[in-house]
Amino acid sequence: MKKKIVASLLSVLCVCTPAVQAEDIDKIFENVNNFIEQKNFTKALAELDWAKNEIGKMHVEALKGFFPDSLAGYNGGEVESSSALGMTNIERIYKGAVGQVKVSLVGGGKGGAMGGLAGLGRMAAMMGGQNGQESLRISGQTATLDTRSSRPELNVFLESGGILKVEGTKGFNKDNSTQLKSVAEAIKIAELNKYLSGAGAAS
């Protein structure tokens, strides 16, 4: 009987949690409007900073959804995120039969600081890379596969401005670099690019 009560309480809490989060952000914007009516713009701006912080957390959670628990036979560890200079970095280590792979996303979104670098990367890829570099397209996005070092690296330059990296770490070399393509192709890159472009919600 006690187990049933606990299970019921947990289910109610799970259902209520999103509503509480939405209520909090609504309250913040309510505070902003109240302060504006009072012409207390200093506090209104402070509340907007809180709103931006909360929306940023929601954005990070949405991005984490593009890093599934498994990719092309590789199982993911903990998803890590960090922010610096207005850029958000998400990464996850995947382990499989052939070594480990690190998948990371840097930047992205309109006005993102990485937009210029992603654009330069696309141009360089289209012009043809150096020896040991292969230019290709994955899910409609320009990419380069670099096998010049002992750890191969695949960079996908998103039109939204972000750079998706798939790097071979432990147990990788240029002979099994094709595994990186398989991992990248298993990611919902088109949907990720659409989300970062502001054209639709993350699935």
What is the gist of this entry?
The chain is of the alpha+beta class.
Your description of this structure?
The chain is an alpha+beta fold and 203 residues long. The protein has helices at residues 2-37, 41-64, 115-127, 178-185, 189-196, and strands spanning 70-71, 74-84, 87-95, 100-106, 133-138, 141-146, 153-157, 163-168.
Keywords:
alpha+beta, 8-stranded antiparallel β-sheet, 44% helix, 26% strand, elongated, disordered N terminus
How many whole angstroms does the radius of gyration measure? Answer: 21 Å
Secondary structure: helix percent: 40-55%
Order of helices and strands: HHEEEEHEEEEHH
Instruction: Output mean pLDDT.
Output: 80
Distance between the termini: 37 Å
Uncertain segments of ≥5 residues (pLDDT<50)? Answer: 1-20, 111-115
Strand percent estimate = 25-35%
User: How would you sum up the major sheet?
Assistant: 8 strands, antiparallel
Oligomeric state of the chains in view = single chain
Structural class: alpha+beta
Q: Could you give the count of β-strands? A: 8
Count up the helices: 5
Overall shape: elongated
Report strand order across the widest sheet: 1-2-3-4-8-7-6-5
